[in-house]
């Protein structure tokens, strides 16, 4: 009888571990750098995914409830149409160079975004309660974005 309980406990534990690992894998949400996303545009189709890069300088435009900008990783560039107004950090720096991740899907050659996340480093600069000098940040170097 005791042996049966140990076997049952082992099976339940193993099942719980498998369940947790599959849920963790299902909840991970990677993004593709712009050049990788452009290269895989046909196979991606209209499925939703996340694309990462920097807002290209001087391309940010606001129209009623839509914001448009060019997103680049240094190797490729794509036009993004974002439903709504992006994060205030993006709007306060219309000259661009802000590293972002956009969730959305392809709409022809353009990317139709529904959510924008501003990527940032681990160092916080509270000088004058501003976002720091974006022009001097690594985002303006337009280096290819790492895959997360």
Global mean pLDDT: 78
Structural class: alpha+beta
Gross CATH architecture of the largest domain = Beta Barrel
Helix content: 25-40%
- Roughly what fraction of the amino acids lie in strands? 25-35%
By CATH, the topology of the largest domain is OB fold (Dihydrolipoamide Acetyltransferase, E2P)
- The CATH superfamily of the largest domain turns out to be Nucleic acid-binding proteins
What summary fits the major beta sheet? 5 strands, mixed, barrel
How would you classify the quaternary structure? single chain
Describe the 3D structure.
The protein has 148 residues and is α+β, with helices and mostly antiparallel strands. It has two domains: 1-29; 32-141, Nucleic acid-binding proteins (OB fold (Dihydrolipoamide Acetyltransferase, E2P)), CATH 2.40.50. The protein has helices at residues 2-27, 34-39, 41-44, 88-91; strands at residues 32-33, 49-55, 61-63, 66-72, 77-83, 99-107, 110-118. The protein has a five-stranded mixed barrel with strand order 2-4-5-7-6. The longest helix has 26 residues, at 2-27. The protein is elongated and about 75 Å long.
Defining key terms:
148 residues; OB fold (Dihydrolipoamide Acetyltransferase, E2P); 30% strand; disordered C terminus
Give the helices and strands, then pairings.
Elements: H1 2-27, E1 32-33, H2 34-39, H3 41-44, E2 49-55, E3 61-63, E4 66-72, E5 77-83, H4 88-91, E6 99-107, E7 110-118
Parallel strand pairs: 1-2, 5-7
Antiparallel strand pairs: 2-4, 2-6, 3-4, 4-5, 6-7
Quick description:
By secondary structure, this protein is α+β, with helices and mostly antiparallel strands. It is built from 4 helices and 7 strands; from the N terminus they run H-E-H-H-E-E-E-E-H-E-E.
């Amino acid at each position: 009888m005791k042996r049966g309980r140990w076997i049952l406990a082992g099976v339940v534990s193993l099942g719980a571990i498998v369940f947790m690992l599959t849920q963790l894998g299902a909840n991970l949400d990677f993004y593709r750098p712009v050049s990788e996303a452009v290269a895989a545009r046909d196979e991606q189709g209209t499925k939703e995914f996340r694309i990462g890069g920097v807002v290209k300088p001087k391309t940010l435009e606001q129209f009623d409830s839509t914001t448009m900008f060019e997103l680049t990783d240094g190797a490729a560039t794509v036009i993004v149409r974002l439903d709504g107004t992006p994060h205030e950090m993006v709007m306060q720096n219309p000259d661009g160079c802000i590293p972002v991740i956009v969730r959305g899907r392809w709409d022809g050659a353009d990317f139709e975004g529904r959510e924008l996340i501003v990527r940032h480093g681990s160092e916080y600069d509270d000088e004058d309660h501003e976002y720091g000098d974006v022009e001097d940040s690594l985002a303006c170097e337009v280096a290819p974005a790492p895959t997360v």
